[in-house]
Amino acid sequence: MDLIDLFQRLGLAIAIGAAIGVERHWREREEPDGARIAGIRTFTLIGMTGGLAGLIETSLGSSALPGLVVAAFLIAVSSALLRFALLEAEGQNRFSATTVIAAIAAFALGVLAVLGDMVIASAAGAATVVVLSSREFLHQSIRRLTWPELRSAVLLLAMGFLLLPLIPSQPYGPFGGVSPRSLVVLVIILASISFIGYVAVRLLGPGQGNLVAGAVGGLVSSTATTLAFAQRSVAEGSAAGLAAGAVAAGGVSLIRTGFLVVALAPSLASELLPSLLLAGLAMGGAALLLAGRGGAVVEGENKADPPANPFELGQVVRMALLIAVIAFLARAGSSVFGDRGLYVVSALSALADVDAATVTVSGMLDRVSGPVASHAIGIAVIANMLAKAGYAVVAGSRPFAVIVCVVSAIALGVGLLAPLTTGLL
Predict the structure, then answer these.
(1) For residue 125, what are the CA distances in angstroms to 159, 312, 392?
(2) Mean pLDDT value across residues 359-385
């Protein structure tokens, strides 16, 4: 490496140590001098020591065993830190290995900045600072989450890293079949999005307002959220606030569908994304206006039962079966009845959930043309919006149903006019 590159790498090692040191020093800023193990100066020196160890390792080349210099420096730094950590624990009766581990990480990232990829070292340093500064949030989250929810996260990791590699990838069944591995991947993606929404509801609590609850509920299931708010509108007699939540759920669902299209079928994004985003933003704006009309939230008004944990085994199995059935029916309908069969299946499946239709059609681009796939997803989105408006009429109060239907009609019109608007622009 030339002299400029050398200074850049050593400077990055120092900067990583300083960034971690700022967080550690701020965390213990109220402590008197000499009461903390390491602050900004010590961590800056640790990062620089890691960089220097990497430079010495490079300069020695093959004259020494590979890694010997770095290992020697690491043992020296770790030994000194452990000694001071033990003294602090004995003096203050406080036991924590975070600072020691952070110091080892600063040293290792300093070495990586000099010997390895600077981008990875920089990103890992930023991630380290984020993790260290998120102590209160992480501790509070652990206190509020229950064991079934944590078990669901473990199930997610197990499915992604243990089960998935063992599942065959070749398709099975008639009409092109269904790939078990692709099915599991899609289930993990959808359930992960829903689980994030579920955790957000648990962390925010039930008293954060119908707007927030509805928006987060749109990540879990906008159809179920609309139905739940409709039932509450009859029981509680309120309309604007609950309608704001239902409309927000619908807007989030449209934007979520847009992200699914971009992730699973990028070739369809240019045709579908403008309509989905504009319609979703229209519903979001309407939700904000309705929330303002809804007034202050009464204590206890939003204490509804949280949505079912979307990553419980039963939920995962049902989601897998739904996607498999819809995929089979869509392929069969497309093979037997042509494009019209695909349109009918998409519309019927979207009466309960638009995700299954979106995922299935996105996976059929090898069998159907781009315009047909776009029309099928568009039909599914329209059918889902009409179904939610129908649920509001059947299960909700009259004012609630009127608001949801009017906003849905406006959003539908905006979405249908979006291609004309973008074409003119």
Answers:
(1) 29, 35, 49
(2) 84
